[in-house]
Design brief:
Two copies of one chain form a homodimer. The first copy, chain A, is 39% helix and 26% strand. Chain A has 240 residues and is α/β, with parallel strands linked by helices. Chain A has two domains: 161 residues, MoaB/Mog-like domain (Molybdenum Cofactor Biosythetic Enzyme, Chain A, 3-Layer(aba) Sandwich), CATH 3.40.980.10; 65 residues, Alpha-Beta Plaits. In chain A, strands 2-1-3-8-7-6 form a six-stranded mixed β-sheet, with helices on both faces. The longest helix of chain A has 14 residues.
């Protein structure tokens, strides 16, 4: 079976200006790994029409799934829905089911469903809605592009509802071995063992602790037996 | 004067697997904003030769500067230097000045400059070295691509030395106004004011505090007078 792949597209000037620290990329990376979907690329682009459209087109052609975050709120700079529609040459308009969801929500809150709020019911033609259990305004999927909110709590809730509906793969297993040696010392033996296990990925991540250098060795793959063998090889090489 | 633009390219499977949370993107975003360089795009790609080469080529053609993070250590999966050389069709080999830096460092530490460590002296032909005051192994610049380490402390130190040497622009000024109203309420008046100031960027960032929704309005631009006028308009509109 071919493993499904994915890209994440974060939309928002506030990340690129350094004003806001992105949280969604780290969250979705962990969730996709657990779901057996290989996250191959992540991008951050600004609230710019051409930048969003070209990233959506390029990533949706290249990967099984694209997950976007940001730009679907009620304000003038929320242009993601229109850009995704244009990327797929679809029309976009206020959709009845989305409008009714918002109307019920604002009615209950005693608030008017004004023009700005109605913008959040604009859905590209033929899209599937993505539930928003936090603040109702839905996300949507067009073909393989899943459009979600940027607010981390809403993004996480939308993703949680969406992921079980997608075709996923065999989850990657990962084992970490801590070695109290600098990366430049472990490099040669590690390289030899990595060359032996071509179906596994062996990575090394240096750290510093109380002034001493160490390295975390991470074995990643889908074959439990091979991972165990590689772990034994590493322990032998580093006398652990 | 045209403002310089930039992209950031983070290289590393550990970010895409969700194992490690990226810090460098947030750090460089803030530093570039302060330096008056417009960060237009950020990407994360895996430790994959083709992915790195094509991202380096595409981003270096598109932006004034490209800053990379990760993949220049001593291990088999550190392939950034070779990929950058290939992206610019340059040869790459161990360079004497880089080798001497490393030799002095490891001599003093009583350690051997082994084959793995020597990998860190591999520099593409014609590159400028970037100082590494933390652990000596240098980064380098090839044309407009600045190649730095992934370890956050080293990345930050390299960037600090590099930035004053680059052509920068007029720094963006940013003012934030907190409004204790949900984004869907501020959207219409905000949109009208945004339409009036075409040279400024007006963004809205919703938050939740103790169960109540509020919005931070952010004005960004390079003309202090215009920013002050827009701030007065916003305060008037929201009775602040």
């Amino acid at each position: 079976m071919t493993q499904p792949t994915a890209a994440v597209l974060i939309i928002g000037d506030e990340i690129l200006s350094g004003r806001t620290r992105d949280i969604n990329m780290y969250h979705v990376a962990g969730e996709l790994t657990r779901a057996g979907i290989d996250l191959k690329e992540a991008r951050v682009v600004s609230d710019d029409k051409d930048a969003i459209i070209s990233a959506v087109r390029e990533l949706s052609e290249k990967y099984t799934h694209v997950f976007t975050s940001g730009g679907i709120g009620p304000t003038h700079d929320d242009i993601t829905a229109d850009c995704v529609a244009e990327a797929f040459s679809r029309s976009i308009d206020i959709r009845d089911d989305a409008r009714l969801l918002l109307k019920a929500y604002y009615d209950e809150a005693g608030k008017e469903l004004n023009e700005a709020r109605l913008r959040m019911a604009r859905i590209p033609d033929g899209a599937q809605l993505i539930d928003n259990p936090v603040s109702i305004a839905p996300g949507f999927s067009v073909e393989n592009v899943h459009v979600m909110a940027g607010v981390p709590k809403i993004f996480a809730a939308m993703l949680e509802g969406l992921l079980p509906k997608l075709n996923s793969g065999t989850a990657v297993i990962s084992k970490t071995l801590r070695v109290d040696l600098p990366e430049s010392t472990v490099a040669n033996p590690l390289g030899a063992i990595a060359a032996k296990y071509v179906d596994l990925s062996l990575g090394s991540y240096p750290f510093e602790e109380n002034g001493a250098y160490g390295t975390n060795l991470v074995i990643r793959g889908r074959d439990e037996d091979q991972i165990q063998q590689a772990l034994v090889d590493l322990k032998t090489a580093f006398k652990l």
